[in-house]
Design a protein that fits this description.
This is Clp R domain-containing protein. InterPro entries: Clp_N_dom_sf (IPR036628), Clp_R_N (IPR004176). By secondary structure, the protein is mostly helical. The chain folds into two domains: about 70 residues, no CATH class; about 50 residues. It contains eight helices and no strands. It is globular and about 50 Å long.
């Protein structure tokens, strides 16, 4: 999921800062139980699984989880809103990121806003960089 938000222009540091602000880590207590899955987390995972199924995917990916978290009213949702992720990420943007570019199709009949085009260009640039590293000898 972090790779997806990084492709959209959000740094890991900005996401971590928003998470820390939304839910500061409590001091660890000896013998304390590990992390517990909250109802909000379960709901986000259920939405993510539904998104994956709706897209015909047998695997729930980070992008599906991100879609599940967009509507979250708990800590994760507040952190994503504070970081500005919810202003940019839409199902159309994620679809453009993974389907429009991956399969060489850009359907301008659908929502093709500046963010989705930016994502597509970043993905293409990333692929070109990887190809260049494979072809060009290391100095």
């Amino acid at each position: 999921m972090l790779n997806t938000v990084e492709l959209l222009g959000f740094t890991v540091a900005s996401i971590q800062a928003a998470i820390d602000a939304a839910a500061p880590a409590p001091p660890a207590a000896a013998g304390a139980p590990g992390p517990v899955m909250t109802g909000d987390a379960r709901a986000a995972i259920a939405v993510a699984a539904a998104q994956a199924a709706a897209h015909g995917s047998g695997v729930t990916t980070g992008s599906h989880l991100l879609l599940g978290l967009l509507g979250d009213t708990g800590t994760a949702g507040r952190a994503l809103k504070a970081a500005g992720v919810t202003e940019v990420v839409t199902p159309a943007v994620l679809s453009a990121l993974y389907h429009g570019v991956s399969f060489g199709r850009v359907n301008l009949g659908q929502e093709a806003d500046a963010a989705s085009l930016r994502v597509m260009l970043l993905n293409v640039l990333d692929r070109l960089d990887r190809l260049e590293r494979q072809i060009a000898p290391s100095p």
